[in-house]
Amino acid sequence: MSLGRHITIERSLSHVQHFCRVAVTGELLPVSIQPEYRDPYASGERDPTWCPFLRRADADSFICTIYQTRPRICREFRCRTMLIYDQNGNEAGYVKGRRTLVSDDPCLADAWREIPGDADDATLKELLKKHGYRAEPLE
Q1: What are the extents of the domains in the chain?
Q2: Whole-prediction pTM value?
Q3: CA–CA dist 107, 30 (Å, integer)
Q4: Which of 111, 112, 125, 129 has minimal Cβ neighbours within 10 Å of its Cβ?
Q5: Is the pLDDT of residue 1 over 50?
Q6: How does 120-134 read in b/e, with b if 16+ C-beta sit within 10 Å?
Q7: How far apart are CA 1 and CA 6, in angstroms?
């Protein structure tokens, strides 16, 4: 959770209202824990390297407990690890996180289902190429 080391709670007004500091920009802003996420936030269960407002939703996903009032740096951050282009060079989708495809292209979604979950980037690129797509890992 890479932005975690850049966001700290500077002052708490209550158990749901805080001022957080964004180290990258120096920004100090008020944030509020969303009502539906107050129980997970209060549980306090988190890795100390994560953002103080990030909590695990289940084994495979996370929630931002301040999503509606999150800092600008979070709103602008795009967790993309790979871009996928169609035969015409248009963006057909992207991969976020380890291997989650985001795409409205049904052919790409079909091709994606054929890729083994443990495929490395090189294998993934080759398999997508067979279906007419070009994959570009992002660093």
Answers
A1: 2-76, 80-137
A2: 0.60
A3: 44
A4: 129
A5: no
A6: eeeebbebbeeeebe
A7: 10
| 31 within 8 A of 79, measured Cβ to Cβ | no
Confidence band, pLDDT 50/70/90 cuts, at residue 28: very high
Which residues on adjacent β-strands are paired with residue 53? Answer: none
3-state secondary structure of 91: strand
Kindly state the DSSP code that residue 139 receives in the 8-state scheme: -
* Bridge partner list, 102: 94
Q: What tokens were used for 85?
A: 């282009």
Report residue 74's pLDDT band, with 50, 70 and 90 as the boundaries.
Answer: confident
Buried b or exposed e, range 12-23, using 16+ CB within 10 angstroms: eeeebebebbbe
Contacts of 64 (CB under 8 A, 6+ apart): 51, 53, 54, 70, 74
Amino acid at 86: D
Beta-carbon-side half-sphere exposure of residue 128 (alpha carbons within 13 Å): 26
Burial of 116 (0-12, 13-18, 19+ CB in 10 A): exposed
At 121, give phi and psi (nearest 5°). -60, -40
